[in-house]
């Protein structure tokens, strides 16, 4: 029942006082339980459920990582990681005569099993074969390395002339634009919320995602996928799962959900990498969209259980897959407003730590 204006004025100070008492209680509780790691664990075990989904998702990711190894003898993330580690060993200066002994047999076994699925990701298997070929060509022989090479020789096909192996920096293509031109691209990339009623071509989305795949990734695992919802009604439905889209969700012709995959990691220590790698790839995605005449807007994704479950059901996500962010995509309405969003200057961002580093 709604209160009358008179009662509202009467109870307003009481409500404000109760809110202050609640905020004070929260502050004291957080201060007490933040004094040690043990008490922090107690707090999130008994007094808050905010991280329960993450806890279970990390464990299920680890379980899925182990299951794939036990079921098929190979794990795509493991193969990518270990081949990338071999590449780093190959380009090391000075290169050690013996390296990667701890994981070379694991890598070759993983490669042999992955080769059976080469029709699924043939370029990755070729990359693995070429790097392993180069590795066995330059590494000194030990009993373990000889065992791994013998297994590799029984499985590898004849190498092709197009080699997917480390190369000199000088072989990279020249940069065809200036810093000023790149800076203009960055300035052109704005968070756009108002779009024309124009369909977004899938070919352009695929081009942007192809460019996004070139972003840095820890040990080249690339633990993310882009779920493309290129339909205005479905895009609105997905956008409404997030917070902060009220008022413009119905205007979005396309939404991309950036989803991290925790099954790429066998240990909790790497659980945060899906957010780092996914964000770097998404930045390249958004910049690529600009060059294709499209605009975008990254949409913050709240870590709220009910919304996680809702979007997971709509996208068909496994529990160990976590949404990193949503990205609206479309052709910008020329008359649509764009927030100015004053950015920090370099003087606000740069910290000279030379005197702090010992």
What secondary-structure arrangement, pairings included, does this model have?
Elements: H1 5-33, H2 37-46, H3 52-72, H4 76-90, H5 104-114, H6 122-138, H7 143-155, H8 179-188, H9 202-212, E1 224-229, H10 232-239, E2 254-261, H11 273-291, E3 295-299, H12 305-315, E4 321-330, H13 346-349
Antiparallel strand pairs: 1-2, 2-4, 3-4
CATH topology-level name of the domain at 182-330: NADH Oxidase
Please name the fourth-level CATH homologous superfamily of the domain at 182-330: NADH Oxidase
Fraction of helical residues: 40-55%
Quaternary structure: single chain
Stretches where pLDDT is under 50 for at least 5 consecutive residues are none
The helix-strand sequence is HHHHHHHHHEHEHEHEH
Provide the CATH top-level class of the domain at 182-330. Alpha Beta
Question: What fraction of residues sit in β-strands?
Answer: 5-15%
Strand order of the largest sheet: 1-2-4-3
């Amino acid at each position: 029942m709604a209160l009358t204006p008179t009662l509202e004025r009467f109870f307003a100070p009481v409500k404000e006082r109760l809110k202050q008492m609640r905020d004070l209680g929260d502050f004291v509780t957080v201060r007490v339980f933040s004094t040690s790691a043990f008490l922090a664990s107690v707090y999130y075990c008994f007094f808050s459920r905010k991280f329960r989904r993450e806890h279970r998702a990390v464990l299920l990711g680890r379980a899925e990582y182990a299951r794939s190894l036990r079921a098929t003898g190979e794990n795509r993330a493991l193969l990518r990681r270990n081949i990338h580690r071999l590449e780093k060993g190959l380009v090391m200066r000075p290169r050690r005569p013996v390296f990667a002994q701890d994981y070379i047999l694991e890598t070759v076994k993983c490669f042999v099993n992955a080769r059976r699925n080469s029709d699924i990701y043939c370029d990755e298997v070729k990359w693995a074969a070429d790097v392993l070929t180069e590795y066995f060509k330059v590494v000194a022989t030990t009993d373990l390395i000889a065992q791994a090479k013998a297994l590799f020789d029984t499985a590898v096909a004849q190498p092709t002339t197009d080699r997917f192996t480390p190369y000199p920096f000088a072989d990279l293509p020249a940069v065809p634009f200036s810093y000023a031109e790149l800076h203009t691209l960055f300035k052109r990339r704005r968070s756009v919320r108002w779009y024309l009623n124009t369909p977004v071509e899938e070919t352009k989305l695929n081009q942007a995602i192809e460019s996004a795949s070139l972003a840095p990734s820890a040990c080249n695992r690339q633990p993310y996928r882009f779920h493309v919802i290129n339909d205005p009604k479905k895009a609105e439905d997905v956008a409404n799962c997030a917070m902060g889209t009220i008022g413009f969700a119905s205007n979005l012709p396309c939404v991309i959900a950036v989803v991290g995959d925790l099954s790429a990691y066998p240990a909790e220590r790497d659980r945060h990498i899906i957010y780092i790698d996914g964000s770097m790839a998404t930045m390249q995605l958004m910049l690529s969209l600009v060059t294709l005449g499209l605009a975008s807007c990254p949409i913050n994704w709240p870590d709220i259980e009910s919304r996680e479950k809702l979007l997971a059901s709509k996208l068909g996500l496994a529990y160990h897959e976590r949404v990193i962010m949503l990205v609206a995509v479309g052709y910008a309405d020329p008359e649509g407003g764009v927030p100015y969003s004053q950015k920090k200057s370099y003087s606000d961002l740069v910290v000279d730590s030379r005197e702090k580093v010992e």
